[in-house]
Amino acid sequence: xxxxxxxxxxxxxxxxxxxxxxxLHMQQIGKVLNVAPLYESEPYGFTEQPRFLNSAVCLETxxxxxxxxxxxxxxxxxxxxxxxxxxxxREIDLDIIFYDxxxxxxxxxxxxxxxxxxxxxxxxxxxDIAPEFIPPDATQSLQELARKCRKTNxxxxxxxxxxxx
Length: 165
Known about the structure:
This protein has one domain (2-159): Alpha-Beta Plaits. It is 28% helix and 27% strand. It is built from four helices and eight strands; from the N terminus they run E-H-E-E-E-H-E-E-E-H-H-E. A hairpin with a 4-residue loop joins strand 6 and strand 7 (110-111). Helix 1 (15-26) packs across helix 2 (65-79) and helix 3 (120-129) packs antiparallel against helix 4 (142-150).
């Protein structure tokens, strides 16, 4: 079994419902060990779009990285994601940030996620569920990385227990 950290985001209504559905579907591909609080953030990349809801999941799974990525893309489709412009509005976005201590770079998948350190909306939810985890490409814990990120990025905590058990 591998421990995987997945970031979730949505900025099209019903945002919370899309994210809840995604977490429920993830239970079919592994054991959801922990779900981070729900945050609201400003858009990243293309900024002329609605604000995002963000969270993270710690998932224990037998799926290998590339098949897992395909499963997550299938969940996005099932939940209702429609392909649009890169970094544009989306119903749901699921990204593998970490997969155990794996460092991987393929045409379709890079682990750790290439830009996680610059995204407070990724770091803070991850730090909430795995504060002492040290990413394989870092020397500091997620908690320390998130603390640095909060100085430059604004994030609003919305709710702690937002997924039905």
